[in-house]
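My current task is to audit a protein record that another person submitted. Please read both lines and tell me whether the tokens look consistent with the sequence. Do not assume that whoever made the record got everything right. I have pasted the whole thing underneath without changing anything:

===
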Amino acid sequence: MGTSLVVTNGDQTDTIVERGSFRDGCMAREFEPDAPNFTPRISSISYEDGSFELSILKHQDSGRCLREFFSFEGADEGVGYFIKHLPG
């Protein structure tokens, strides 16, 4: 997306790019409707300045979507960054 790199675990990549905004694209989607799994949608974007964002969209027992966003000013060499899905 321009000089940024979008990586996801599903077709939400297209939505993010079409919207032209990481957050707007994630807000337009929800978890996968693959009951009983409701697979979370995990997305990331890396910016030219080295900063990056991660997002996870998870199913809640209420049926609502929990949208979590994480922003990082940059990555440290040798350090992995991930988000973990906890069921429920």
Observations:
- The beta strands are 5-8, 41-46, 52-59, 65-72.
- The longest strand covers residues 52-59.
- The helical segments are 12-19, 22-27.
- The CA atoms of residues 1 and 48 lie 11 Å apart.
